[in-house]
Design brief:
two-stranded antiparallel sheet, single chain, 6 helices, 59% helix, mainly alpha, 190 residues
Length: 190
Amino acid sequence: MKHAIRMCSLACALVIIAAPKAALAQSGTILAEVLEDWSDLKASILQLVNYMPPDKYSYKLPLPVQVIKGLPIGPAQEPFGKRVLDIALVNVRFLRTLDGKAQAPVIADTDAMTSKEASMKAVADSFDYGIALLKEQTDETMWQKVDASSLGPSSRVRVFRYLHSRAREIDGQLVIYLRLSGEVLPAVVG
């Protein structure tokens, strides 16, 4: 009886240990998942920012600047186009740390780049740069550490995860810009 219990326990332990590997094999590679998420994020961001009419890319949120003891605290509200451009600038900044062969797009941080056409192109170019870098990788290299600027030593997976969460944070802000500017969004975006 003890032998049967031990064998059953051993079999259960082997199933538990093997289960995550089987689940990973069914879900594909980490590289494929990151590439799919990155591509979907590009489409979602571009769809969202396209809802803002070109003449409203200079729209700023109607929020007061905080003042403490007569001094303004924090920057003035940025225009919508600048928030969109910021996604591209940060993407390129961190993607350059991945030590890839793909050529980084040149994106200037100027007022001219905050128009609808220019900022959307910058965002698309930054995501395309990420896609080109991902196509140079393997599952193994995705886990290798790089010096990722202010993130410090980080795997390539972590860099993409950071950029994904940051872009999602900004897209939440952009929804607020859109709504407060009077734009009507479809029930489901992205």
